[in-house]
Amino acid sequence: MRYIFLVLLCTLSLGLKAQNTLTFPELVLKGEQVTFTLTTSEEINHLWINGENVALTPTDEGYKGEIEIHNGTIELNEGYTHNEPMVIPGWLSLLPPLIAIALALLFKEVISSLFIGILVGAAVFSCYADGFIGIFSAFFTVLDKYMVHALSDGSHVSVILFSLLIGSIVALISKNGGMQGVVNRIVNFAKTRKSGMLTTYFLGIAIFFDDYANTLVVGNTMRSVTDKLRISREKLAYIVDSTAAPIAAIAFITTWIGAELTYISDGVNKITAAGGEINEGAYGIFMSSLAYSFYPIFTLFFMFFLLYKQKDFGPMLNFERKALKEGVNGGTDNDESTLDLKEFETKAGVKPRAFNALLPILTVVLGTIIGLVYTGLASCEQQIIDVAGSFNGSVWSNLQVIDASSDSFFRKLGLVIGNADSYAALLWSSLSGLALAILLTVSQGIMDLKDTMESVMTGIKTMLPAIVILVLAWSLASVTEDLHTADYLKSFFAGEFKHVWIIPSLTFVLSAIIAFSTGSSWSTMALMYPLVIPLSFTVASDALDYDATLIMYNTIASVLAGSVLGDHCSPISDTTILSSLASSCNHINHVKSQMPYALTVGGVALFFGIIPGAMGISSFITMPLGIIILYLIVHFLGKDIDNEMAKK
Question: Which of 405-419, 536-550, 619-633 shows the lowest per-residue confidence on average (mean pLDDT)?
């Protein structure tokens, strides 16, 4: 009986102990406000911690409060227990992303830089948790914790599958002659220098779903046409390069969109976890940010003005003069450019048919739209039921129940798409597009099933480098989340910081510098998005004069825009190099002639788009203003080569 009594007493004591426990985060930053949860059996509105009377707020999880902790020592009221958090200096939380960026800039290689950044973060965490011995276990933590976590996330797996499916479609419709059929139809419009340039431009826009496919297909296809029309290889390379990334970056069905959505989704999750409120899905946020994607949009307009008015300036003017006067003598044509095009070559003996490409592409595009509307309406229906209990009529006619401002068609459409399951829509549509491409290929006898599936696997292989970067980027984002890097960065802008408008512009410039130095838009997005999305929203939320959501939209767009600008200016950029190869253009000449155009557009985007937009000026004003300024630059600064040569 005595032993039973002791067991019951110990059990009761453990139960009371568990019910009077403060739970701190495993790791906290020194000198920062830390949120803790108190689980207790009694109602309580304050608690003495380290001699300070801390107010508590009742929640479903327990009583929550905040306290500033400078070290691991915590003194509580008698009868309360707590876990012992690790306390690290804030500057250590910056090491993983800074080291990853610095190594990428130094060695011009992204994969090892990201891995080392993750390793450093894991080592910091492990050393504080387990002492010096933790530095050895950190090497394995990179794989068994962070990379496994990145691959176990459902949205991340969706992005990987979508990227693989799109890569497969691109490779297959190239092999079965569909892509060449589209190209052949467009090439028929190239009769003069002007029409030849514009045809190349619109072909670049038409192949919007992948920048590599765009660059290699357009460059190799149009080279012989532009040579005959005395269009310089430098101009061809510029058109190819400057349509590829900008259109792939802003189109809503591309090999880029999956990565962009997952970065946005992860950033939003961090914001909501910190108490922020965002009532919009990742796809809706992406669509809203397009209003601030000044550089990609301005680039497409600027190029159209140059081609339509047949004007140039800078080094490009001299190359065009030489081509018009002397003709194009083959440039640096070699076998290198065709080596990169193997997976995009039509199979020998196959008759090109445009519908073999158009039908799968339209299936992906229309399927995604249908999927977004379907899943969005289903989500909105559940929200209406939650708010109103029930409703009569269609979901569309009752959308004002959950958003009173949804009184127009586009507001309703935006609400539906914003609540859609974008990952499901992308997966459904891309799988349908691939299935149709396989069916068209096999049913027409273009390739047997074995060769068809080999082309599918080839397309998958072309996406593997990008997927490796994505997984490492997700892992680095998890490290920065564990180390509270965003919280530490936010502290620099707390209190009296009033110039929130500068965040998007700094983001744009820094993204351009990183992309220029690394030669990769994807690695730049991987490094920047995890930091700036939560930072921009939380800092703007603390500033009364700014709309936090609009600042976040602008910042998201600025990462993308800066990445493309730096990519265009970088001599080590993959798409810049491929543009030179596919166009058989001297690479240095391509970089030298493209850079003045890219910097011109970048300057207009920064001073007439990003900064005014961050100050609250509507995109309905900044976008047309920037386009008009670019037109005036072309009109007054550019010179008409055809008229110039005619006078001579």
Answer: 405-419
The residue out of 137, 153, 169 marking a domain boundary is 153
pTM flag (> 0.90): no
Same domain for 537 and 478:
no
From the list 601, 591, 579, the residue with the least C-alpha distance to 214 is: 579
The amino acid at residue 543 is A
Residue 79 reports pLDDT greater than 60: yes
Backbone angles phi, psi at 334, to 5 degrees: -155, 180
C-beta of residue 64 within 8 angstroms of C-beta of residue 37:
yes
How many structural domains compose the chain?
4
Residue-range definition of the domain harbouring residue 113:
92-153
Q: Are residues 137 and 246 in the same domain?
A: no
pLDDT at 273 over 70: yes
Structure tokens that stand for 203 in this block: 């072909």
Whether residue 9 sits in one domain with residue 70: yes
**Which has the higher per-residue pLDDT, 52 or 147?**
147
pLDDT mean across residues, the chain: 80
The DSSP-derived string for 217-238 is HHHHHHHHHHHHTT--HHHHHH
Lookup result for tokens 């507001």: 411
Which among 227, 222, 267 is positioned nearest to 240, based on CA atoms? 222
The reply to whether 477 and 487 lie within a common domain is no
